[in-house]
Automatic annotation (TrEMBL):
Organism of this sequence: Flavobacterium endophyticum
Quaternary structure, from the entry: Component of the replication restart primosome.
Any one Gene Ontology cellular component term annotated for this protein: primosome complex
Name of protein: Replication restart protein PriA
Occurrences of domain Helicase ATP-binding (ranges): 291-460
Enzyme class, first EC level, given as a word: isomerase
Length: 816
C-alpha cells in the first residue's frame, strides 16, 4: 500500500495520510499540491510533504481526489522552513501553509469564483469544460467551487479553474469585493475582424467620408509599426491630433477595441537604464566592509545615519549577486515604500524587479510565485513586505532587510506570528545566502548581536554629499503655554520656522502620532467620556465626518450634541490628532496647501502613492502625518520637520517605549534636509530634559542603546530574556478571569523562570471580548525547544478542561 503525507490549509498541527495508487506514488513529488477530501464533504488543496508505506493506525486513510501539479510548486527548503516557523512560533503547520501561499493556489470546495471584470475572453479558445464554467458565469455573478463540480459533472475541477485563473479569466471572489481600483491606462487595438488584409481595405474604403476617423486609423498604423509597446488612447489622440470622441466612435463601431492595463505592469524599456552610480568614499568603505564581513559571517548590520545613501549600497551589492546568477529578496516594513523603491531599482535593473505583497491581487501574486520558482529573469529581485519571505526561491543569494528595526516585520494576527527578520535569517541559512540588515536606528536586539560579534557591523556616520545632520531645537511646552506663546498646538518657535521655510518655497513635515481630530470627547459638566460599546477604549473624534470612531474595532456613531450621561451640551475635546493639526493649519496658513498621511487617508492599493506623489511633486506644502512618515521616505525639498508632541510616545506602557520613541523621532527628523541645505527639526515637549529626547537631539544612538540595554537587563527583557506572551479571550468576564488564573498557576508552578500575570492589559476588552495576558520570560541560556514543549503541554491540558475550552488562546513567541 502507498501513502502520501500532506499538510492541510487548516489550523491543524498534524499532517494527514492519504492513500494513493502505485502510479500516483511514483508520480507525486514533495511540494506538489493534491486535492483531497476532508470531513464529510469538503475538498481542500493539500501539500504533499512525504511519500511512504506506513498505514495510519488511528484512522482509515482516504483516497486523494487528484494531483494538481506536474512539478513541485513548493520547494523542500520551503517545507522545512515552514516547519521551523510552526515549531518556533508555536503554531499549526496548516496556519503557515495557508498564510504562505496566495489563496488562488488553495482552491477548496467553498471557494467562491467570479469572472474577472475586464477579462478579454475568446470563447472559441475555451475547452468544452471551460466553456461550461464561463457560460454559467454569464448567468450568475459568482459560483462556489462545489457548484462548478456539479456543472462540469466531475470532481476534479481544480486544475480547470486554476488554468482560467492563470489566464486572467476568473478571479477569487474576495478580490471582487476589495475596495481599491488599480490605476488603469486605456489602450486601443484593432478589432480582430480586421486582422485579414482584405477586410482592412474594405474598411478604409468605408471610412473615406469620415476623414477624422480615417486619420486616426492611419495614425494607429503608424504607431503600431514604429513601437512594440501597446498603444494608449492618450498617445493615439496626441499623435493624430483628433479628439478622443473620435476614438470612441471607432470603438462603438467595433473597429477599435479598448482594453486596460495597470500602469506599473507595462513593460519597462531597458534603454532607460540609469548609468552606473558612483559610490562616495564613505559608501565605498561601507560596501567593502560588508563584503569583508560576509566572508566570515552570514548576517551583517549596516548602521548608517538617515540619508547616508544605504539604498545605493544595496543596489551595488545586488549587482554582485545578480552577476553570479543569484536571486535577491528585498524586504520592506511597509508596502507604502515599495513605489519609491521600485522606481529606484527598475531605473537600475530594468525588468528584473518583481513586487510581491498583500495588496497585489491573487493573479499577480500567482504570477510572481511562478516566476520565482522558475528563477525567471523577470523576478531576480523581489521587493516585498514580510510575506515575500514565503516565495519558492531557487537560487537565493542575498536578503536585504531595510529598516530592520520596524515592528511591522512581526506579524501580530493571525498565526503564524513570525518575525520576518528573524525568519529570514533562518531561511538564508538553508540557502547558504547572506543577510544584510539596514537601519539608521537598529533595534536593540540586532545591535546587541552586532556588538557581540554574532553579526558583522558596518557603520556610516555621515550623510551622502556632505549634507549635515539636521539641527534639532527643543521647545518646552510648559513654558510656552505659561507665557501664552501658543496658537492652537503650535509654539511661536515652530510657527516662525514654518513661515521662514514656506517663504523660501521649502516643504514641511509635521508629525503627530495620533490620527483623527482628538482622542477624547469629554463632558465639561459631568466628565463623562463616550466609550466604544464593544471595547474598553474611548472613542476618537473625527471632525470632518462628524463622527466618533473606535480605532480598535471600527465602530462609529454620529457625534452626540449633548452628553449621554447628564444631557449637558458643553462638550469639549481633549488631546489632538492629525486631523486637528490639519484644520489648525488651514487658519494659520490659509494660502498654503496641506496634506495628511495616516490610516484614514491612505486606504486602498494606491492611497499612499497619491499623497507621496503629490508631496514629491510639491503640490503639497505641509504634510501632516503619523508614524507612516517615519519610514524611510526620501523627499528632497523638505527643510523643516516639526514633532508636535514628543510625550505621548514616551509614556506608552511598553518596555520598548523609549527605544521606539528614539527611533520614531530620529527617523522623522531624518526626512529633513536630505539634499544640500541643512535641515531643521523642532520638537515640542513637556520634558525637554528627558534622556531619550536628549539622545535624539544629540544623535546619540549608542547612548540610547546603552541606557536601554541596562534597563532590559535589570527588568529581564530581550535581548537577555525571550518573551512568550499568551493572550486569552472570552466574552464572559468571570470565566476568563478564572481560566487565566488556572493557566497562570500551572505555568508558574511548572516553569522555573519568571511568569507574569494574568494581567488585564491597558485595553482589556475588544469587540466585546475580555482579554487577559500571561508573559513568560525565558532566560537566554535556557534550551528553548524543551520549554516550548512544556508550555504546549500545559496549553493542551488547559484546553482539555471542559469549562475553559471556549476561551481562545493565542501564543506570541518573541512578543513585540
Ligand atoms: P538612506 O536610505 O541611507 O536614508 P538614501 O539611500 O535614500 O539614504 O540616499 C539619500 C539620497 O542621496 C538619495 O536621494 C539618493 O539618491 C542620494 N544618493 C545616495 N548615494 C548616492 C550616490 N552614490 N550618487 C548619487 N546620489 C546618491
Ligand atoms: Zn455630562
Ligand atoms: Zn471598539
Amino acid at each position: 500500500m502507498y501513502f502520501v503525507e500532506v499538510i492541510l490549509p487548516l489550523s491543524l498541527s498534524k499532517t494527514f495520510t492519504y492513500k494513493v495508487s502505485e502510479a500516483e506514488y511514483n508520480y507525486i513529488k514533495k511540494g506538489m499540491r493534491i486535492a483531497v477530501p476532508f470531513g464529510k464533504s469538503k475538498i481542500y488543496t493539500a501539500l504533499a510533504i512525504e511519500l511512504h508505506q506506513n498505514e495510519p493506525t488511528l484512522y482509515e486513510a482516504k483516497e486523494i481526489h487528484q494531483i494538481l501539479d506536474e512539478s513541485p510548486l513548493v520547494t523542500e527548503i520551503q517545507i522545512a522552513h515552514w516547519q521551523w516557523i510552526a515549531s518556533y512560533y508555536m503554531c499549526a503547520i496548516g496556519d503557515v501553509y495557508r498564510g504562505a501561499m496566495p489563496s488562488a493556489f488553495l482552491l477548496e470546495s467553498e471557494t467562491i469564483i467570479s469572472q474577472k471584470q475586464d477579462a478579454v475572453v475568446d470563447e472559441l479558445q475555451l475547452t468544452d469544460e471551460e466553456f461550461l464554467i464561463y457560460d454559467a458565469l454569464q448567468h450568475q455573478s459568482s459560483l462556489k467551487v462545489q457548484d462548478i463540480i456539479a456543472i462540469v459533472g466531475k470532481k476534479n475541477v481544480f486544475p480547470i479553474i486554476q488554468k482560467l485563473i492563470d489566464r486572467n479569466i476568473l478571479v477569487l471572489q474576495e478580490e471582487v469585493i476589495e475596495l481599491y481600483k488599480p490605476k488603469l491606462t486605456r489602450y486601443i487595438r484593432l478589432h480582430q475582424d480586421y486582422a485579414a488584409e482584405e477586410n482592412l481595405v474594405a474598411l478604409l474604403d468605408n471610412l473615406k467620408n469620415a476623414k477624422k476617423q480615417k486619420d486616426i486609423l492611419l495614425s494607429y498604423f503608424q504607431l503600431n509599426a514604429s513601437q512594440k509597446k501597446p498603444i494608449s488612447v492618450k498617445q493615439l489622440v496626441e499623435n493624430s491630433k483628433v479628439s478622443s470622441t473620435v476614438v470612441k466612435a471607432l470603438v462603438d463601431k467595433n473597429i477599435f477595441e479598448e482594453y486596460h492595463l495597470q500602469e506599473d505592469r507595462v513593460s519597462f524599456d531597458k534603454n532607460q537604464k540609469e548609468k552606473n552610480l558612483q559610490l562616495s568614499t564613505a559608501q565605498q568603505q561601507a560596501f567593502d566592509g560588508i563584503a569583508a564581513a560576509f566572508t566570515e559571517k552570514d548576517v551583517c548590520l549596516l548602521h548608517g545615519v538617515t540619508s547616508s545613501g544605504k539604498t545605493e549600497i544595496y543596489i551595488q551589492l545586488i549587482e554582485d549577486y545578480l552577476a553570479v546568477g543569484k536571486q535577491v529578496l528585498y524586504l520592506l516594513p511597509e508596502i507604502a515604500l515599495t513605489t519609491q523603491l521600485v522606481g529606484r531599482l527598475t531605473a537600475h535593473f530594468g525588468n528584473q524587479v518583481a513586487v510581491f505583497h498583500s495588496k497585489y491581487t491573487n493573479n499577480e501574486r500567482v504570477e510572481v510565485w511562478r516566476q520565482v520558482l522558475e528563477d525567471s529573469p523577470k523576478a531576480k529581485i523581489v521587493i516585498g513586505a514580510r510575506s515575500a519571505l514565503f516565495l519558492p526561491f531557487q537560487e537565493l543569494g542575498l536578503i536585504i532587510i531595510d529598516e530592520e528595526h520596524e515592528q511591522t516585520f512581526k506579524q501580530y494576527d493571525p498565526a503564524p506570528r513570525y518575525h520576518a527578520r528573524d525568519a529570514a535569517i533562518v531561511l538564508a541559512n538553508s540557502h547558504k545566502s547572506k543577510v544584510l540588515l539596514g537601519s539608521a536606528t537598529p533595534s536593540l536586539e540586532t545591535y546587541f548581536n552586532a556588538a557581540s560579534s554574532k553579526y558583522g557591523l558596518v557603520e556610516i556616520t555621515e550623510r551622502f554629499g556632505n549634507v549635515m545632520m539636521p539641527e534639532i531645537e527643543l521647545v518646552d511646552l510648559k513654558d510656552k503655554y505659561f507665557r501664552k506663546r501658543m496658537k492652537g498646538h503650535f509654539s511661536d518657535t515652530l510657527l516662525e520656522n514654518m513661515a521662514e521655510a514656506l517663504a523660501l518655497g521649502e516643504q514641511i513635515i509635521l508629525f503627530q502620532n495620533r490620527r483623527g481630530y482628538s482622542p477624547v470627547l469629554e463632558c465639561i459638566t459631568c466628565g463623562h467620556v463616550p466609550e466604544c460599546p464593544q471595547c474598553d477604549v474611548s472613542l476618537t473624534y473625527h471632525k470632518n465626518k462628524n463622527q466618533l470612531r473606535c480605532h480598535y474595532c471600527g465602530y462609529s456613531m454620529a457625534k452626540p450634541t449633548n452628553c449621554h450621561n447628564c444631557s449637558s451640551v458643553d462638550l469639549t475635546t481633549k488631546g489632538f490628532g492629525t486631523e486637528q493639526i490639519e484644520m489648525e493649519l488651514a487658519s494659520l496658513f490659509p494660502e498654503k496647501k496641506t496634506g495628511r498621511m495616516d490610516q484614514d487617508t491612505t486606504r486602498g492599493k494606491y492611497g499612499y502613492e497619491k499623497i507621496i506623489d503629490s508631496f514629491k511633486n510639491r503640490e503639497i506644502d505641509i504634510l501632516v502625518g503619523t508614524q507612516m512618515l517615519a519610514k524611510g521616505l526620501d523627499f528632497d525639498n523638505v527643510s523643516l520637520v516639526g514633532i508636535m508632541n514628543a510625550d505621548n510616545m514616551l509614556y506608552h506602557p511598553d518596555f520598548r517605549a523609549f527605544e521606539r520613541s528614539y527611533q520614531m523621532m530620529t527617523q522623522v527628523s531624518g526626512r529633513a534636509g536630505r539634499s544640500e541645505k541643512r535641515g531643521k527639526v523642532v520638537i515640542q515637549t513637556y520634558n525637554p530634559n528627558h534622556n531619550t529626547i536628549q539622545q535624539v537631539t544629540n544623535n546619540d544612538y549608542i547612548g540610547m542603546y546603552k541606557e536601554q540595554l541596562y534597563d532590559r537587563h535589570i527588568f529581564k527583557y530581550p535581548p537577555y530574556y525571550r518573551l512568550i506572551k499568551i493572550t486569552l479571550k472570552h466574552r464572559d468576564f468571570d470565566k476568563l478571569k478564572e481560566g487565566a488564573m488556572w493557566l497562570y498557576q500551572v505555568m508558574s508552578q511548572n516553569l522555573d523562570m519568571p511568569v507574569l500575570g494574568p494581567e488585564e492589559p491597558a485595553i482589556s476588552r475588544i469587540r466585546n471580548e475580555y482579554i487577559r495576558t500571561i508573559m513568560i520570560k525565558i532566560p537566554q541560556n535556557q534550551p528553548l525547544g524543551g520549554i516550548k514543549k512544556t508550555i504546549q503541554k500545559m496549553l493542551n491540558s488547559f484546553e482539555a478542561v471542559p469549562q475553559y475550552r471556549p476561551i481562545k488562546t493565542a501564543v506570541n513567541v518573541d512578543f513585540y
